[in-house]
Structures are given as C-alpha cells and as structure tokens.
Amino acid sequence: MSLQFVGLSEINGPLVVLDHVPSVGYDEMVELKMKNGAVRLGRVVEVEGERCVIQVFEGTNGISLTNATVRLLGHPMEMPLSAEILGRTLSGAGKPIDGLGDIYAEKREDINGKPLNPVARTYPKNYINTGISSIDCLMTLIRGQKLPIFSGSGMQHNKLAVQIVRQANIAEESGQKFGIVFAAMGVKNDVADYFKRSFEESGVMDKVVMFLNLSNDPIIERILTPRCALTVAEYLAFEHNMHILVVMTDMTSYCEALREFSSSKGEIPGRKGFPGYLYSDLASLYERAGVIDTAQGSVTQIPILTMPNDDITHPVPDLTGYITEGQIVLDRSLDQMGVYPPISILPSLSRLMKDGIGEGYTRADHSAVSNQLFASYAKVQDARALASVIGEEELSDTDKQYVRFGNAFERHFINQGFTDNRSIEQTLNLGWRLLSLLPREELDRVESELLDKFYNPEDAKDLLA
C-alpha cells in the first residue's frame, strides 16, 4: 500500500521536507504531483523519526508548500535491465534519450547494488588489451581491476577515454562477449556529441551502453549516474557472463555535485568543503568492480578524474588512490610537447599487473621489459636534472645515452597516434628496441638469457633519427 500526503513542511533548494510520515525508508522513491498534473520524482535522503527530507530530481521550481501531493512508492530507485540495453544512450538517471523508446525490462534492480560476499570474489587475472603501449606494457589493465586516470583540466583525457573504448578487447578464446558501459558526468554538450559521434563512427556503439549527464542537468542526476551505470555493468557481467569495462568521466564532477548536495542538507563539511563521508561514498562505487566465482563475467573500472590545479593531493584523487589498485597519471608538460597520450610513467602503476602478465597471459619477457623500462626512465630524469645544472655537454657518456634513450622513449613508445592500435607483441618488441639504445651492462633488471635473445643495438639505430 502506498501512502499519499498533501502539502509540504519546508522547501530548501532541491530538497523538500515532509513531517508526520510513519515508516518511511531511507533511499525510498517518491512521486510529487502538482495541481497541473505534472509529476516529479524524488528520493528520501534523510530520516529523523517521522520527519523525512526528499531530494527532488527535477528541482523544486514551481513547487509551493500547498500545491504538491507526495506519494511514497515503497522501494528504492531501480534500473530497468535487459540484454537489449547494449547500444542504447541513456540520461544520467537511466532514461532513454536516443529516441528508440523505453527499455523492455527483463528485471529491475536497486541502483545501490547488492551486497557482495567477499569470499565469493576471485583474484583478478588476465589482462585487457587497450592497444596503448604505455598502459599495456607498464601499467597493465587486469580484468576485474579498478584503475583510475588522473588528469588535469584541459588535457586529453576525453580523447584517451574514446581510444580505450574503441580499442579495448579481451582474448575471445572462450567465446565470451566484451561490452563497455560509458558514464559521462557534468560534460558540456559538445563533449557529449564528441563521445556519441566517435563511438558511432568507429562502429563500437553496438557494444556500448552510454549514460550522459550534461553540465546543465540537475546535480541530483549526476549523483545517480555512476550507480545506474554500475548496475547495468553488474547485470551484464554476472547474469549474462560478459566482460564489462566501465569508463566513468569525470569523477571530480560527481564529487563536486556530492559536495553541493551535502551543503544543501546542512552537513558539516570536511577537507575543502567535501563531506566527511566522501571516502566511503567513493568506495561504494569503486568496490563494485571485480570477479566472482559464481559467474564467468567481470566488471573492470576506469574512473577518469581531473585534478584541480593539477594537485594530486586534492581530496578526490587522494581518496581515489587509497581505494583503487593503482593509477594512470597524465603529465601536462608531455601534453604541451605534443605527446599523446601524455602519460607520466613514474607516478603511474598497476598493482595487479604482476599476476596477469607473463607466460600464458601476455609474453614471458613482459615483466622484465616493464621493470627495465621503469628503471631506465627513472635514470633519464636524474640525467636531465643534472643536465639542467651543469649543461648537457658536461654529462658523462652514459648519462648522454640515457638522455637520448629518454627522448626516443617519449617520441616512439609513449607517443602514438589516436588510431594506432598496437598489439602486445608490437609493444614489447618496441620496448626491446629502445632498451638496445643503452649499454648492455646498464640493463641490470633483465636476465642474460633474455638479453641474448632480444638485445640488438643495430635494430635500434633508426629510433634516433
């Protein structure tokens, strides 16, 4: 039985208050009907005894204390789910906006997800090939992992997101399908059009479910977007045994919407005005990635967030780094040099890659190549720092070789075209050619058997041209 109440006690921004409401549930959905017949949706975000605070998705413009009838629906917000959802474009709240009609739901699920027994989780293994050398070789993306991209305002993270969506694939030896759930939060109209156009032109739209929350949409919808997207991902992965990659951009917009919403509720702010529960709220999203033993599918997450003022200690990247298994950091100086994708190698890592690469996954020499490239590029930074003090002509011969290696590494390995889709074989072979620019005795992270097989200075000379 659903209850109806006439009139409101209070209106405050996107929130309305209702008194004398017995047995109301937190997160319960609500319908507000105006005198003109218009209906708006909301949900209960705070309960104090018989007093409840309701968040109105479409805003409270035109609502007065006397002209609204409130009906409690008795259930939390639910997402209509069907295998036919692939290829659809939805609003941030999960409503179809592609002109193809409503989704014929096989079932409906609470967008907050089901509690997952930690014992049911299995350790993520097997890698996802993105076709991007710096990611595939040095910070490999593993199925079931959450690996965020830390970017800065105005950098090419949207372009990188499109390239990952277009190129990402898994080995299909088991016949399993691969799909992508793409959630854009707080983006401008031109960015939303860029995403849609790019996916359609590259022919991947039939395996993508796209959620679009525009910058002029209500902030309340922005808070729902990642939860709707992850509900679809879990359904496709754990009930249809698909491998699902979830790309969410921009998580900073989501966190700022959460801060605005928290402020309107009068909550005590934490660091930089964000609510004190920001960590647990982000964890409730990121921890919905993984692999479970009762299904053959997986949910992998790539959240993308912009760091205000390029500050990696800002609360959003800081807390994200605590929850996720590594990060990919974009570098503004590389971006200004015209390097794409401008991935900063040294602060980036993937904590799960060690168990998803090597013999049987990528190639036996993958770990050795990765370790040696990291170590060598770290020495490049030392040589460049020394050159900035004493001048490059005063460097030792070895340091000069490291500087040449660093320039070639950035020009040929990190830098690659937007349409350049490299296989793991091409990436590792290119890594060996670059390492062959250095003296053999400097390659101390590689076994001599691998050096005998792959080290070939003659094959690397063209990289210096």
Automatic annotation (TrEMBL):
<dbReference type="InterPro" id="IPR055190">
    <property type="entry name" value="ATP-synt_VA_C"/>
</dbReference>
<keyword id="KW-0813">Transport</keyword>
<dbReference type="GO" id="GO:0046933">
    <property type="term" value="F:proton-transporting ATP synthase activity, rotational mechanism"/>
</dbReference>
<dbReference type="Pfam" id="PF22919">
    <property type="entry name" value="ATP-synt_VA_C"/>
</dbReference>
<dbReference type="InterPro" id="IPR000194">
    <property type="entry name" value="ATPase_F1/V1/A1_a/bsu_nucl-bd"/>
</dbReference>
<keyword id="KW-0066">ATP synthesis</keyword>
<dbReference type="Pfam" id="PF02874">
    <property type="entry name" value="ATP-synt_ab_N"/>
</dbReference>
<feature type="domain" description="ATPase F1/V1/A1 complex alpha/beta subunit N-terminal">
    <location>
        <begin position="9"/>
        <end position="74"/>
    </location>
</feature>
<keyword id="KW-0406">Ion transport</keyword>
<comment type="similarity">
    <text>Belongs to the ATPase alpha/beta chains family.</text>
</comment>
<comment type="function">
    <text>Produces ATP from ADP in the presence of a proton gradient across the membrane. The V-type beta chain is a regulatory subunit.</text>
</comment>
<dbReference type="InterPro" id="IPR004100">
    <property type="entry name" value="ATPase_F1/V1/A1_a/bsu_N"/>
</dbReference>
<feature type="domain" description="ATPase F1/V1/A1 complex alpha/beta subunit nucleotide-binding">
    <location>
        <begin position="131"/>
        <end position="350"/>
    </location>
</feature>
<feature type="domain" description="ATP synthase A/B type C-terminal">
    <location>
        <begin position="355"/>
        <end position="455"/>
    </location>
</feature>
<protein>
    <recommendedName>
        <fullName>V-type ATP synthase beta chain</fullName>
    </recommendedName>
</protein>
<dbReference type="InterPro" id="IPR022879">
    <property type="entry name" value="V-ATPase_su_B/beta"/>
</dbReference>
<dbReference type="GO" id="GO:0005524">
    <property type="term" value="F:ATP binding"/>
</dbReference>
<dbReference type="GO" id="GO:0042777">
    <property type="term" value="P:proton motive force-driven plasma membrane ATP synthesis"/>
</dbReference>
<keyword id="KW-0375">Hydrogen ion transport</keyword>
<dbReference type="InterPro" id="IPR027417">
    <property type="entry name" value="P-loop_NTPase"/>
</dbReference>
<dbReference type="Pfam" id="PF00006">
    <property type="entry name" value="ATP-synt_ab"/>
</dbReference>
